[in-house]
Amino acid sequence: MMRIAYVTADRGIPVFGEKGASIHIQEMMHAFAKLGHEVRAVVAKRGEAAGTSLYVEEVKTLLAGNTRAEKERAAMAQADTIEDRLCSLHREWPFDLIYERYSLWSAAGCRAARRLGVPVVTEVNAPLVLEQAAFRSLVCEEDARAIEAEVLRTSTALAAVSRQMAAYLTDAGTDPARIHVIGNAVDTSHFRTETPVAQLPTIPRDAFVVGFTGSLKMWHGVDTLLAAFRAFRAGEPRAHLLVCGDGPKRGWIEGFVAGAGLEDAVTMAGWVDHADLPGLIARMDVATAPYPASDDHYFSPLKLYEYLAMGRPVLASDIGQTAELLTGSKAAMLLPPGNAEALANALRALCDDPALRARMSVAAAAEGARHDWTENAAQVVKIATREEAMA
């Protein structure tokens, strides 16, 4: 068995939080532990947790800042502090592997690995430099690109969350032999078909429930979902929409619902503790992932794996890893991205055909069972062991 130092230097992602990235970190740590490995995390932001079995140490930096440039330099300084803490931790608790979730300003894992002579596997979930430059603000761009290049060049191996993400890494000059596609997964002991259904007072018992979980952002397709649901509800009075999540478009959704007169047909659950999410998914007759059209859909949506493990029939956009996961599966219908009419028609078809929903449910549960987090953790350990033997 191995000792694994888990690293995340992103100050915007608390380990104990409700973001998808936070859940990913927690689940991977638990998965390593379930396989018998010892895991300690050295992180930029711990978050609050009660009764957790995970060992998570928050490392702070004395630098702060008000301007964008000052904040970016503080993030780089924090990564340097994490690197030093990894080296001192190794003296106290000699570990065999560093596993770092790539963040914009950190090469802490790679640099500590070189100093210590241990392998490092870097998990890459997004093209962070491109995202930051396109959607937020990036002052120290030259530093960010240099850090990314160093991580891609010096990691023992890279775990890309999707084939599209792997293609980005290859285009950036990474040897394809060092890139391994490891999509997201699900805790199949927690998300399972036997989960009791949550009873919500706002949802009638005979309602046909259309479900969505995730951040309320336009690139998750909430506009398409609302337009499709309005059309579906016009001909099906039992239709009810259950939205589990929160985000910048919540106000837009609430305005749409009010304007369409759908207040009695939509339940906004808000952010839900991940431990409580299975019961809400169990209440859904159909679960949706209506992503819009995109040329670089590199995501690996957690919601899909959770829907499947719960045995929910899935309606999803025919795009990216979503399509790769579901093509040929009897668990889902794949629809044109951003097409509200196609989604509304699919909702009608499933509402009218309980036997089809039952067949899809069985297929979904079987597919979901194939994607447990422990399989991901085992693959990481195998990759690290193999790459170290070849070094």
What structural class should be given to the helix and strand makeup? alpha/beta
Under the CATH scheme, which class of the largest domain?
A: Alpha Beta
How would you name the oligomeric state of the polypeptide chains in this document? single chain
Radius of gyration: 22 Å
The profile of the biggest β sheet is: 7 strands, parallel
Number of domains: 2
CATH topology call of the largest domain: Rossmann fold
Amino-to-carboxy terminus distance: 20 Å
What are the main properties of this structure?
single chain; 391 residues; alpha/beta; Rossmann fold; 2 domains; six-stranded parallel β-sheet; 14 helices; 16% strand
What does this 3D model show about the protein?
The chain has 391 residues and is α/β, with parallel strands linked by helices. The protein folds into two domains: 3-185 and 372-390, 3-Layer(aba) Sandwich (Rossmann fold); 208-368, Rossmann fold, CATH 3.40.50. It has helices at residues 20-34, 68-92, 108-116, 128-135, 141-154, 163-171, 222-235, 250-259, 277-282, 302-309, 320-326, 340-351, 354-368, 373-390; strands spanning 3-8, 38-43, 55-58, 97-101, 120-124, 157-160, 179-181, 208-213, 239-244, 266-270, 286-289, 314-317, 332-335. The strands form two sheets. Strands 3-2-1-4-5-6-7 form a seven-stranded parallel β-sheet, with helices on both faces. A six-stranded parallel β-sheet has the order 10-9-8-11-12-13, sandwiched between helices. Helix 2 (68-92) packs parallel to helix 3 (108-116). The protein is globular. The relative contact order is 0.12. The mean pLDDT is 94.
